[in-house]
Each structure stands twice: as structure tokens, then as C-alpha cells.
Amino acid sequence: MNSLKSVAVNISIPFFIFFIFVFIALYESKIPEFIFTLVPYLFYAISVLILWVSWHFNRNRFIFIIIPLLLISIGFEYLSANKKTDLFFYASVLYPLHLLLFLSLRERGLFSIWGILKISLFLFEIASVAYLVAYPQSDLIALLKIKLFALSFYPLQDISVAVGIFVLFIISALLIFNRYLLYNGSFLVIVIAFYAGFYFIKTPHALELSMLAIGVIIFILLIRESYRLAFYDELTSLPGRRALVEDMAKLGMKYSLAMIDIDHFKKFNDTYGHDTGDEVLKMVASRLANVGGGGKAYRYGGEEFVLLFPSKDSDESYTHTDILRDAIAKSPFSVRNKKSSKRIFINISAGVVQKSSKDRDPFAVMKRADNALYKAKKAGRNLVVKA
């Protein structure tokens, strides 16, 4: 289960973007009209940018999300009134489900087997909606317009509202329990923005502003995702070595750090397999991520981690590191196979140092911490040694 702080951090940016556009819609009378004439063109421009960046960085999930919005926007602009009504109905039902589907599917190459299946499904969706709009199916529309609620949500139909509630519930659950907070938080706000635009479609510029808001949220998500891939470790979700180097370059004259290594990790991998070893790495990382004293955990590589303590001396960092060592040593880890389950205990060793005037750069500090870690290993492991 994700902490409330993590959830709040990950939804704050998309919600902030959404509320900016809500503010613009509420005070549209005080904003020059020519600005609103630019909104559709800004949406098209940012959509093209999203398509280019997504293709360039192989994040094809965003391609499948933005193209339907482009088609919906074009349809509302050029179709006849009756066809716009049908498009509104089908889009309000299908697009949120489409978002949930492509949120759930893992990133694959577009021309892999899974990628081709996604393309086929996507084209089938588009073709089905295009056919239903071009050739109205009155019996189907009457069936889908069944009354489900006592309240009226006009212009949204009850089936659209029911789908929205379902999608929001699933994404909210993912936001709380799934570790991909970055995506889940943004997609939650995208669904809210989509329904806001459709519900207030008769309010001047509401739909265009909601489309642009979704485009901006997706583009910001792309940037945040690119940053995560560059600076965060995929397995443990901790900042990686590049992030450590960047953060150490910003430090002042006083700081300390701990180099940490999982004891006998190679032997553990050989005995229980790499999949179980990955679970151990994630367990240790989750413990280290909660370090006290203003420390921050990084995955340095393999089974090595670093705890960085800005403005802290070695005594303080030693205390917090040893608390973590003891907590990990006392936490049983279950190894399961087809026949049985075995409880084992994981130990870590650490070397703690404080920057001194003799250290020419942060790497010299890390070298001394690594030497202290070696002493902890040599002294019997499951120790923290302070240099």
C-alpha cells in the first residue's frame, strides 16, 4: 500500500494543471476571446509533440491515448449535429475504458507480437466508432441509454456515468496499491478532466480547454517518465547512480554517507534464483527508502546501495544506518516454491563516513565509505563500521 504522501506528490502536478484550466473556464469572460481561438490549435500542436516524443522514446502507450482525442476533437469540429451527438455518446462510454485498458497494458515495441495486437485492437475500436457514427444504430443507442440512476447527469447518459465511476474506482485502487504512482495519478486526473469537459460541453470553451488540459498532462507525464527512466532504478524504484552523482554535486561542505551491501547475495541468488533475488533487492530497498535523519537512499548497482545524509555528521548517519540494519536483520523473508515455503533472514553490512577537508570530491568520500564497508564484511558481516 502506497503512503498518502507518495499519492499526494504524484497527483499534485496533474491536478494543478487541471485546476489552472478550470480557473480559465470559470473566468473566461475576463480573458480576451482571441486566446480561446488559439486553444484548439494549441491542442493539435501539443498532440503532435506528444506523438513525436512518444515515438522517439518508444512510449507507445501515449500514442494510443492521444490519437482518439485528436479524432474526437476533429469529429466535433466537422461532423453534422446528429453525428456529433452519437460521437459524444460513444466517446463518453468507450474512451475512459480505453484509458484503463492502455494504462493496464505493459509497454511493448509497436512491431512486436503484443504491439501488433494492441494496434489491431486500437484500429478495431476506431473503426467500430466510425461505423456507428456514420451508420446510426438506433436500437443499440436506445439499449445503451437505459436509466440506471434516479439523478440526471445530462448531457451524459447513465451508462457513461456508470463507466466513469467504474474506471475512477479501479484507477484509484491502483493509485493506492500499485507501485506505478506516476502513471496512475496522471490517468486519474485525465479521466476527471475528460468527464468535466463532456459534462460542461455547453459551457463556452469547456470541452476545448479540457482537451488541452489532458494534452498538457500527458506531455508533462512524458517528461516525468523520461526523468524517471534516466534517474530511477526500475526494479527498486529508488534513485539510481546518476541521480546520486547529481545530488552529491549539490551538497555543501558537511555531509555523510553510508555504502551498503547485502551479505552473501551471490550465494543467495545461486541458491534461490534471480527472481527471488530481485524480491530481496526490492524488500531491502523499501526499508532503506524509509531511512530517518533526512537521509535519502539510492541503488548504486547490483546489491549495493547508498544512503546520503546532507548536513549530518557520521555519528547521526551511523545511528540511522544501524537502525535499518537491525530492522532488516529481524524481518523474515519468505521463499516459496511449488512444494513449500521457507522463512529466511537477510543481513546487510555498511560503511559510514563523513566528508573531510582531505576529500577532493564526493567520489573520494565514497571510496572511504567503500573501504569501511569492506571492513564490516571482513569483521563478520551484519555490521555497520564508521570510518
Observed structural traits:
387 residues; 2 domains; 14 helices
Describe what you observe in this structure.
The protein is of the alpha+beta class and 387 residues long. It folds into two domains: 4-231, no CATH class; 241-386, Alpha-Beta Plaits (2-Layer Sandwich). It contains 14 helices and seven strands. It has helices spanning 4-26, 33-56, 61-78, 81-104, 113-134, 138-144, 158-177, 181-199, 206-231, 241-248, 265-272, 274-288, 314-329, 362-378, and strands at 255-262, 296-301, 304-310, 332-336, 341-345, 348-354, 384-386. A five-stranded mixed sheet has the order 2-3-1-6-7, with helices on both faces. The longest helix is centred in the middle third of the chain and has 26 residues, at 206-231.
